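Appendix B, example 12.
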Amino acid sequence: MKVCFERYKKKLWLRWFYIIIYIFWIAPIQAQNNEVIYGHPFITNYSAASYKAGIQNWDIIQGSNGRIFVANNLGLLEFDGNSWKRFGLNNTKVRSAFWGEDGKIYVGSQADFGFLSPNEKGELEYNSLADSLPEGLKDFDETWKVYSVGKKIFYCTFKRIYVYEDGKTSTIDADERLDISFLVENQIYTQIQGKGLYFANEDGFEIIQNGDFFKDKRISNILSFGKGQWLITTFSHGVYIYDGSIRPFELDDSFWKNDFLINYSTRLKNGNLALATQNAGLFVLDNSGRLVIHLDKESGLMDLTINYVFEDAQQGLWLAMNNGVARVDLNSPFSSIDDRMGLLGSGYAALKTDQGVYLGTNNGLFLWKNGKVKFVEGTAGQVYSIQNIYGKLILGHHNGTFLVEDLRAKQISTEQGAWLFKKYPSKSNFLIQGNYTGLSLFEWKDNTLQFIQKIKGFDESSRVMEFDGNTLWIAHGYKGVFKIKFNDDLTEVVESKVYDSRQGFPTNVLINVYKIANQLIFTANGGFYGYDPSTDSFKPLAEYNDLFRYGTVMADLEPDDLGNIYFIEQTKLGVIQPQPNHQLKLHYAPFNKIKSLWNDDLANIIALDNQNILIGGKEGFIHYNPQKDIPQENVTPVIFREISNQGVENQMIFSGHTSSGEMPSSLINREFSFAQNSFSFDFVTPHFESGSEILYQYLLENYDEDWSDWTYDTRKEYTNLREGNYVFKVRAKTIFDEITPTAEFAFIIRPPFYRTFWAYGILSIGVICVLFLGFRWLDKKHKSETQELEQEKNKALLRKDSEIESLTQKSEKEIMKLRNSKLQAEVDFKNQELTSSAMHLIQKNQLLNTVKNSLKNLVKDEKSSPLNTQLNRLIKQIDKDLEGGEEWTQFAENFDQVHGNFITRLKEKYPDLTPQEIKFSAYIRMNLNTKEIANLLGISVRGVEIGRYRVRKKLGLTRQDNLSDFLLRF
């Protein structure tokens, strides 16, 4: 495939040679077949509700900054492409307006005239000149026209003409009532009712040669029309050529009626004439009077009464209507063929023939001729293709295949979903048709197309297909591309292979095939590909892929006779143009205007001829005329609509109007206090063809690091800016990707007082003084502290001695405390031993009592005298052990050590206590209970109670005294 495309490049120079031959030789012969198709131009209507003023409009002008001004019943309207604004003036109906070279807007209205000029803040202020006239010159009603000649401004009324120059107003008076005045070649002309056409001079009015011809014909306008000629239009008596003599300018009755009233006429920049009528809309004629286009309500205008026509800098026509305002893109290369012409549905197929242009939609087939559309009977429903096959028109339709003759369709095949036909290369009388369920075979025989049969062996939908030799390539929407070969009689597919991502495509979906310059080009979700038979795979075509970004998905490609390749891609439409240096150029910016209008169901673009390209639209078709695709010389600039400042108070800095078109010098590098450090910028680009599709990008120097992303926002705010020098920059990108020059506003924010030079100076001096005083104070303080330190040193030595002594005492106390702690620990240990010993005695005595009681029982039961003797001896031995004399002596010594000689002190104080009562008291001090004491003493519980009573009595305790508490405290 690479070799094939290298061959294609080499042929480019031959193509250019053929183009030259075509232009100078063949094209003139084919001129009659290359009739330019005219659709309806794009029209934007603005109703009174949108601009919020009166319905009637009378005049339109454009300022040097691109804004449009409209003379309206309720004042002067301003439109910047984004929003409307109204200036009420003196609450009068504004009839005329003129943009002066000095940047002032001179206006005429009911019983008033004057001018608007910007003040220092850019706000338009109205100055009435009529208010300062002498009373005798105020007796006029309407100021219908305002003109300028040199420095003179002419306000034309029905009473007289007022001349304003250098701040003074003079008059050109007339004896009779004047009609509308005109400016032709820097000369003011006016019509005097009942007399004819006059020109004005300083002395008054003088009739022109043969001017009386118009005494009973009211003139609507006078235009320069060739050397020494005028074109004069009248309201109700037709159009005339004037060169001293007068002759009618004939208008063809095929489009013109005598009852059409001409309100205004003008000469367009391309030389055509525009006639604005009272009752029939707008007519655009060429110099010979032939109709170019007629616009009325069916074309999209909201009103038939047009009072004025103005052509703006972008060659758009503005219409001041009796009800609203309209803008017509008359010179755009794009126009619409849709239901306004009678074409119903979305566009799918088109074919140019000698009978006209056949247009296929989802509602059927239509014939367009001379701006009129007729329906072809029998074709209702979805049309897929219309092809010229051997001079016959063959229609591919949802319901089958049809032959079209004399605006009627005759069905020749009922196979549903007839996509299109391709001739079999080696047998041109046989044709292969793709349809919903595969392929069908047709034969051209006996001067007609005959259905043979459905081809066997392939049943996939076959909408997109091309032959390469006798091999048929069929692209499927989501399976890949099939390579098909037929048997000899073409009735069966004998070989079918599918190619997808395994053979080089990025995915299996959105693959298409086209034949360009007799070579196959495959497109997929990732660009352009060519088939390489040596590897039986597909490889990217850098020649085309370099023109587009990665991921390009082509919806349709269509070449014309000049080598241009028109394309529809997911994000753009355009044309690939061959260049003389064998390179390719991508041209798509103008197509951005319609990129949201094309039919995205089955996208299609059809090159009828070199001047007529049709793009299937959501509503009908979009017509593209390459001859009108002329780059705009001037790019509409960005203008500041409003600049405001916020902070302690809200301030309007600039309202967008200047006399020179440049930012007033008083606003350049204007300084603002730090308290006013927030700004709001409102901007716009009056590129009316772009509508609301203009993108903006902005940057604040010394704040933003880089330009912002492109956005539709027309307002940007900055808050709490630091002090410094700033430049706000903004630029726009139109719908045609044109980037405007940058608009700038430079300003300075002064620092707050505490960050000014003087503040820093005062602060520095203050710091020096503070440091000086501080050093002196520190020196004094150092000396004072030195003396204090000496005194403190002596005191510290005394404190140290005292502390050492105190520490010594504390140490001794700590030693004593430690000794006491040790002694207490020993006491606690002894106490534990005592308790343990007591418990041991209790347990032993319990055991001995138990054994004793058992022995006594044996003595009672045993009759043997020797055994009883032995048992009684054991009982006495147990009683002796229970008395425990030696154990008590040891216990008493230990008890006294732990309890501070308790037993000794008790004996000394209460000598009457028996040894048994002393034991009893010791056990009570140890917190033993009654039962435990009974076991230790070998007595009963009752005995313990009696013992407690005796002890209390000998100790002299009353009933209220607690024996245990007494013994514990003793």
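Residues 639-755 form a domain with the Immunoglobulin-like fold (CATH 2.60.40.10). Residues 1-33 have pLDDT under 50 and may be disordered.
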